[in-house]
Design goal:
The protein is mainly α. It is built from 17 helices and no strands. Helices cover about 65% and strands about 0% of the residues.
Length: about 450
C-alpha cells in the first residue's frame, strides 16, 4: 500500500499520520462514503456554486451603488481573491482528498482547536445558507400566490433538497449538474442577446445603450472608493460557495485529476458570468435607473435580467426569471445540504460531534447528519411568524459572516500547509512544482 510523504507541523515538528492514497480518507472508517462523483459533476458543482442570486438579483444593486465601473472593479477584485483561494484549496484537496476537508486541514496544519471551530462554523454556515434559500423561496413564491402560507413553500423545497441528498451522492451530483446547466445556459443566452441588443439599438431620446452609460453623470464610479468597498462585500457573498468543490473531494471518483480541473475553471467562469453580465447590464441600464435600487429577493420583477429581457421585447421575462431564480435557490440549497451534511459527518468521525451523526446508510449517505442539518434549516419556517423579508435578512447576514470566516480558515490552513511541506524536508521542491498538483 503506497503512502505519500509525512507532513509535520512547522512548529512542533511532530510527525503526523500517513495519508493513504488508496482510500484517500484520514482518520475515517474506510468505505463509508461512495466515490461516485465524476468530472462533469464536479465541474458543474463548481460553476453552480458561483451562479446564484448574487448575479441574478444583487448585480443590479451593485451597479446602482458603485456605478458600472465600480461594480466591475469590485467583482473583479473579489474574483481574483477567490481564484487564489481556490488554487490554495486545490493544492490541499489534490494532496489530501477527503470529505469535509476544511476541519481536517485546519486541525492538521494549524491547531485541533481551530479545526474544531472551523468545522462547526462551516457546518453552521451552510445550514444557515439552506435556511436563507428557503426563506427567499417563500418570498419569491408570493409573486405568484401572495395569499398562500409562506412556510408551505419552504417545507416543500426542503423535502426536495433532502430527497436529492438522501438517495445517493450520484443523485446529488446529477441534480446539481442539471440545475447548474440551466443557470449557465440562462447567463450565456443573456450575454449573447445583450450584445446583439447593444449593437442593433441606438436608443431612445431618454435612454442610450452602449459605452455612453459608463460616462453618464457620476459614472463609471459612483461614490468613488466607498462605493467599491460597499459592493466588495456584496460580491464576496455572491462568490461564497465556490469552495464546496473541496468538500466533494472525498466522494470524487478521481480526485487528483477532477478537483484540479474544476478549480482551474474558477477564474474563467467568474470572468464570463459576472464580469460580462455586469458589463452588459451597465451598458443597457443606467446606474440611476430606479429598478436597480429595488433589485432584491422581494422584487424579482425589477431584477436587471428581467429588465433587460423586457427591453428586448420578451413579455414573459418576469415569469421566466422568477422560475430561474427559484431553480437557483433550489440548487444553492441542495449544495448547502450536501456540504453541511458531509462536514458534520467528518466532525462526528473525528470525535468533534456526537457519534450518532457518523452513521451511514448502505448507499453511502450520512442520514443522521442529514436529518440534523435539515432540523436547523427549519429556521426558515419562522417566516410564517415574522416578516419574511426580515427573516431573510437575518439569515443572510449570519450566512455571509460565517462564510468569510471559512475563507479565512482556508487561507491560513494553506499557509501552514506550505510551511509544513518545507519543514518535512521537501525544500528542494519550489512552489512552482508544488503548483503542479493543481494542473
Amino acid at each position: 500500500m503506497a503512502h505519500r510523504n509525512h507532513i509535520v507541523s512547522p512548529d512542533t515538528k511532530h510527525e503526523t499520520e500517513f495519508i493513504d492514497e488508496k482510500t484517500q480518507d484520514l482518520n475515517l472508517e474506510d468505505g463509508d462514503l461512495k466515490r461516485h462523483l465524476k468530472s462533469r459533476h464536479l465541474s458543474m458543482i463548481a460553476i453552480g456554486g458561483t451562479i446564484g442570486t448574487g448575479l441574478f438579483l444583487a448585480s443590479g444593486t451593485s451597479i446602482h451603488t458603485a456605478g458600472p465601473g465600480g461594480a466591475l472593479v469590485a467583482y473583479a477584485l473579489v474574483g481574483v481573491m477567490v481564484f487564489f483561494l481556490m488554487t490554495s484549496l486545490g493544492e490541499m484537496a489534490a494532496y489530501m482528498p477527503i470529505s469535509g476537508s476544511f476541519n481536517t486541514y485546519a486541525s492538521r496544519f494549524v491547531d485541533p482547536a481551530l479545526g474544531f471551530a472551523l468545522g462547526w462554523n462551516y457546518w453552521f454556515s451552510w445550514a444557515i445558507t439552506v435556511a436563507v434559500e428557503l426563506a427567499a423561496a417563500s418570498v419569491i413564491m408570493k409573486f405568484w400566490l401572495p395569499s398562500f402560507p409562506s412556510w408551505v413553500w419552504s417545507l416543500l423545497l426542503l423535502i426536495i433538497m433532502i430527497g436529492f441528498n438522501a438517495l445517493s451522492v450520484k443523485g446529488y451530483g446529477e441534480s446539481e449538474y442539471w440545475f447548474a446547466l440551466i443557470k449557465v445556459l440562462t447567463v450565456v443566452v443573456f450575454i449573447i442577446v445583450g450584445i446583439v441588443f447593444i449593437c442593433t439599438r441606438k436608443g431612445e431620446e431618454t435612454q442610450m445603450y452602449g459605452p455612453s452609460n459608463f460616462t453618464f453623470q457620476e459614472a463609471p464610479f459612483v461614490d468613488g472608493a466607498l462605493g467599491v468597498v460597499q459592493v466588495f462585500l456584496i460580491a464576496g457573498f455572491s462568490f461564497q460557495g465556490t469552495e464546496i468543490v473541496g468538500v466533494t473531494a472525498g466522494e470524487s471518483a478521481n480526485p487528483e485529476k477532477d478537483i484540479p480541473r474544476a478549480v482551474k475553471q474558477v477564474f474563467w467562469r467568474i470572468l464570463l458570468f459576472y464580469i460580462c453580465a455586469i458589463l452588459i447590464i451597465g451598458m443597457i441600464i443606467r446606474y440611476d435607473d430606479p429598478s436597480l435600487l429595488d433589485s432584491d429577493v422581494s422584487s424579482i420583477a425589477t431584477s436587471p435580467f428581467t429588465t433587460v429581457f423586457k427591453l428586448m421585447g420578451f413579455a414573459p421575462a418576469t415569469h421566466l426569471m422568477n422560475a430561474i431564480v427559484m431553480l437557483t435557490l433550489l440548487s444553492a440549497g441542495n449544495s448547502g445540504v450536501y456540504a453541511a451534511t458531509r462536514t458534520l459527518w467528518v466532525l462526528a468521525n473525528e470525535g468533534k460531534a456526537p457519534a450518532l451523526l457518523k452513521r451511514v446508510s448502505r448507499n453511502g449517505i450520512p442520514l443522521w447528519a442529514l436529518g440534523f442539518t435539515a432540523l436547523i434549516s427549519c429556521l426558515s419556517f419562522t417566516t410564517s411568524i415574522f416578516s419574511a423579508n426580515a427573516v431573510y435578512q437575518w439569515l443572510l447576514n449570519a450566512s455571509g459572516i460565517t462564510g468569510f470566516i471559512a475563507w479565512f480558515g482556508i487561507a491560513i490552513s494553506h499557509y501552514r500547509f506550505r510551511k509544513a511541506f518545507l519543514a518535512q524536508g521537501n525544500s528542494d521542491m519550489p512552489a512552482s512544482q508544488l503548483n503542479q498538483l493543481i494542473g
